[in-house]
Amino acid sequence: MGTFIQLVIDGLSTGSIYAALALAIVLVNQATGLINFAQGGMAVLSAYIAWQLTQFGIPVLLAIMLSIVVSFVLGAIVERFLIRKFEGGDPDTAVVVTIGLLTLITGVCAWIWSYNNKLFPSLFPLETVNIAGAVISVRSLGTIFVIVAIMLLLQLLFVGTKLGLALRAVAINPQSAAFSGMPVGRLLMVGWGLAAGLGAVAGALVAPQLTLTPGMMDAALVYALAAVIIGGLTSPIGVVVAAWMIGVLENLAAVYVPFIGHDLKIAVPFIMIFVVLIVRPQGLFGRKSVVRV
């Protein structure tokens, strides 16, 4: 029983990292209607900024908060001077632009900080607690708590605030939103800025568990995209639940399903995607798109 509990908690912790990136992807999509493949690279850049600040003697919590602010500004700048040139055009072109941006950011991080592994200080104590015979790290519990808080805040933003409703209106129909007097350009910048800030949180959560390298978020981005497909692009709660499902089922399958093991556990999210797309194409928690003709 202790092993099962430990696998579940560790899976929730790992899934929370995927969820942070998935929430950022959902936020950009809700604000602009685009899928940002550069989200992982922006998270890495934020983590490097936070790490560099800690090297100057700034406490890790303050460094992470400052990196979130810097990331918000950078995200807004990217939207204003790069992405905006492609918004409203062919969506495939915008997707290629975000992939190119991912490559550019990764290269810049490697050029400035090199590919050498760097140790990122943990935001949470490196202690453990005993829960029903399972040894659980405080860092895992802290990671889960952070993602739950962010998920609830995002859900509140989209459903219960004028800013969230305005972001959704701009994503659905920017022309109608502009005719209604909404500052579409500024709202798009805010959406990208918030997503970049979320990416900074994801980078700060994953860097201590791995080591800080330019490509550390590549695998996490794949899992985040899987969580977005499974949970649904329109539901922040849905993508978090989907990310947790991926993390937990991966761990359980690796230990309890002999023919999968640790080598094939990466197939678990893709099997889940296959099943969900057949049963519910809009995602487990997503809404169907209705198009009037």
TrEMBL record:
Pfam families recorded: BPD_transp_2
Key word Nucleotide-binding present: no
Keyword Zinc-finger: no
Location, primary (coarse class): membrane
InterPro entries membership: ABC_transp_permease, BCAA_transport_permease
Domain of life: Bacteria
Protein keywords: Amino-acid transport, Cell membrane, Membrane, Transmembrane, Transmembrane helix, Transport
Membrane topology of this protein: Multi-pass membrane protein
Cell compartments where the protein resides: Cell membrane
Stretches that traverse the bilayer: 6-27, 57-82, 94-113, 145-167, 187-208, 220-246, 266-285
PANTHER family: ABC TRANSPORTER PERMEASE PROTEIN, BRANCHED-CHAIN AMINO ACID TRANSPORT SYSTEM PERMEASE PROTEIN LIVH
Family that this chain belongs to: Belongs to the binding-protein-dependent transport system permease family. LivHM subfamily.
Protein name as it appears in the record: Branched-chain amino acid ABC transporter permease
Taxonomic source organism: Microbacterium pumilum
